[in-house]
Design a protein that fits this description.
Pathway: Amino-acid biosynthesis; L-arginine biosynthesis; N(2)-acetyl-L-ornithine from L-glutamate: step 4/4
Cofactor: pyridoxal 5'-phosphate
Low-confidence stretches: 1-37
Enzyme class: transferase
Strand content: 15-25%
Protein name: acetylornithine transaminase
Number of helices: 15
CATH topology of the largest domain: Aspartate Aminotransferase, domain 2
CATH architecture of the largest domain: 3-Layer(aba) Sandwich
GO molecular function, one term: pyridoxal phosphate binding
């Protein structure tokens, strides 16, 4: 006899198919299952068959969880066998409006039928309109579009170097180096990779771009001294480190960077690829600090799941850049930018942002009440709907157990932090279900620590 996940009936509280999962609240479904037998796939192939094909045909750059997802709606995802999962990953912070948001769907289907791509040889209206909206709700004067977060950071690297050359035309010893911070993540292309602190990301591809110094996140004295050296073209910092373990900067730290950069003539770059666009309950994470950058990089949620990135810059940075000095074939297509307009219009609504803040506070309080007393839980931190749960053991057993019980969450930091970045539309009821599942799964940490 064996237990398996089964959709049966409806939960009156959630108005959704009820997914049975092994726990103290649900009895095991008494079904005779032969060894290795799985429910039939609604797509004709089982998860095992699809996973086998992936291993055969796709370059092995990912250590994937053994789930084949086929559809989604709101904060729910479904695998090819029809099992339901509560998604608190939002595609690593991408699907901020959940899956299948009707306004996003209308924007995408409309422009798929009207115009998808023309390249940046020509003008297109959605690109200009999205740029206008981004400028109107930010510190920035101009926008450069690209296709991902790492490309946005590559643009920021190039713009910073060019700014120094433009602003110091007679200087033969230009500042060309960069400061980044420990536990940071800025991307996987060669320039952004050089700004990413984890050695296991960089070491297989060295030598990477030289001239990057990694300082302790939050160390004001070391940062100011390095900026004053006269060697620094720009400082890259995440107001909230996502992959690094969900660490938030202090206002004093960011303000010290701003002041020192102004004094030295170098640029301050905020990487808000993960923490921006409503994730914290503010449209931009740095708004909570009252400190503003020269360049801000964006990506993940901006087009609701379609590939886009952006570097937002002040006019003095934009003046340094000439036609032909940077570009992209695919960036800023009318198709993707029309989706971006739908996303930005919804997320930038003050009532939407207020709801994110309220749900974030409620969620964090629930986590503290239900998980905070566990001996393996060392800290619960974050703001809005980016939350980190630091453990004294690896987070992987808890993440795996939650997945088997129908909840998708992530790891971060050194593998000992549970990272939770749900769609911003998540309901309080769904957050309660998530906390219940995590609470039920906590005993796996005792098993992991005893090994």
């Amino acid at each position: 006899m064996s237990c398996f996940t089964l959709n049966t009936g409806f939960s009156p509280a959630l108005r959704r198919p009820l997914t049975l999962r092994p726990s103290k609240y649900y009895a095991c479904v008494n079904v005779d299952m032969r060894a290795n037998q799985k429910p039939p796939s609604v797509h004709g192939k089982t998860s095992e068959e699809i996973i086998a094909d992936e291993k055969k045909f796709i370059v092995g750059t990912y250590a994937r969880a053994p789930v084949v997802l086929s559809s989604g709606k709101g904060c729910k995802l479904y695998d090819v066998e029809g099992r339901e999962y509560l998604d608190l990953t939002s595609g690593i912070g991408v699907t901020a409006l959940g899956h299948g948001d009707p306004d996003w769907v209308r924007a995408v289907t409309h422009h798929a039928d009207v115009l998808t791509h023309v390249s940046n040889i020509y003008y297109s209206l959605p690109q200009v309109e999205l740029a206008k909206r981004l400028v109107s709700v930010s510190f920035a004067d101009r926008v450069f579009f690209c296709n991902s977060g790492t490309e946005a950071n590559e643009a920021a690297i190039k713009f910073s170097r060019k700014f120094q050359r433009f602003s110091r035309p007679d200087d033969t010893n230009l500042p060309v180096e960069f400061i980044a911070f420990k536990n940071c993540f800025h991307g996987r292309t060669m320039g952004a990779l050089a700004l990413t602190s984890k050695e296991h990301y960089r070491s297989p591809f060295e030598p990477v771009m030289p001239g990057v110094t990694f300082l302790e996140y939050g160390n004001i004295q070391a940062s100011v001294e390095m900026i004053r050296s006269g060697k620094i073209a720009a400082v890259f910092v995440e107001p909230i480190q996502g992959e690094g373990g969900v660490y938030s900067a202090t206002k004093e730290f960011l303000q010290s960077l701003r002041t020192a950069c102004d004094d030295a003539g170098c640029l301050l770059v905020f990487d808000e690829v993960q923490c921006g666009l409503g994730r914290t309950g503010y449209l931009w994470a740095h708004e909570a600090y009252g400190v503003f950058p020269d360049i801000m990089t964006l990506a993940k949620p901006l087009a609701g799941g379609l590939p886009i990135g952006a570097a937002l810059v002040t006019e003095r940075v934009a003046k340094a850049i000439n036609p032909g000095e940077h570009g992209s074939t695919f960036a800023g297509s009318p198709f993707v930018c029309n989706a971006g307009i739908a996303v930005l219009d919804k997320i930038s609504n003050p009532s939407f942002l207020a709801s994110v803040s309220e749900k974030g506070q409620y969620f964090k309080q629930l986590l503290v009440e239900k998980l905070g007393g566990n001996s393996h839980v060392k800290d619960i931190r974050g703001v809005g709907l980016i939350i980190g749960i630091e453990l004294d053991v690896s987070a992987s057993p808890l993440v795996d157990a939650c997945r088997k019980s129908g909840l998708l969450i992530l790891t971060a930091g050194k593998g000992n932090v549970v990272r939770i970045v749900p769609p911003l539309i998540v309901s309080k009821q769904e957050l309660e279900v998530a906390v219940e599942i995590m609470t039920d799964c906590l005993p796996v940490l005792d098993q992991a620590s005893s090994k």
